[in-house]
Design goal:
Blueprint (H helix, E strand, L loop, with lengths): L1 E9 L2 H11 L7 E2 L5 H9 L17 E7 L14 H28 L4 H11 L7 H28 L1
Parallel strand pairs: 2-3
Antiparallel strand pairs: 1-3
Helix pairs in contact: 2-3, 3-4, 4-5
Length: 163
């Protein structure tokens, strides 16, 4: 059961839409991670008491990721609800890493189904409700992933043939 306290983190819009779709949260609602989810563990470690001059949660406009904090075993969320800028960036990096693994897994499945590049990207973007302005980024990551997998396959083949 999550608490009623919501923190705000600056995060790219495509990662916010991805999180909402992945966790089944309605658009614009705060994300609530389960108590034992990796992101809850990271938050448990990163959250601190706010500095004395801190008075209000910032609003980053469209790039605001709202997170409903779970109750932690060793921290009271009424006192520990502050993430410094560095910790916010690191937390967003964890979200991005999760996104990247999920994206590459999904795209691999679509490649195995013999979908064309444009179809793979479109299906992935539709599934995770990604904004259209992130299409170029998804396509670029798709190409990078294909090059990486073909490079690793060639390395394995060379290793086998040299034995």
């Amino acid at each position: 059961m999550p608490s009623d306290l919501i923190i705000k983190v600056k995060c790219p819009v495509y990662l916010i839409r991805f999180q909402e779709s992945f966790f089944g949260i309605p658009l614009g609602e705060p994300i609530c991670y389960s108590k034992r989810h990796h992101f809850s563990e990271v938050l448990d470690h990163f959250l601190t008491k706010p500095p004395k001059d801190y008075y209000e949660l910032p609003d980053y406009g469209e790039e605001t990721l709202q997170i409903k904090l779970p109750y932690f075993e060793d921290k009271d969320v009424r006192s520990y609800f502050y993430l410094s800028n560095t910790k916010q960036k690191t937390f967003v990096w964890h979200i991005w890493a999760f996104y990247r693994v999920t994206a590459r897994t999904e795209l691999t499945k679509l490649i195995l189904l013999k979908c064309q590049k444009q179809d793979c990207v479109s299906i992935f973007m539709e599934k995770y409700n990604l904004p259209e302005n992130s299409r170029g980024m998804v396509e670029k990551d798709y190409q990078r992933y294909l090059k990486l997998t073909s490079k690793n396959t060639l390395k394995k083949l060379r290793k086998i043939s040299s034995v």
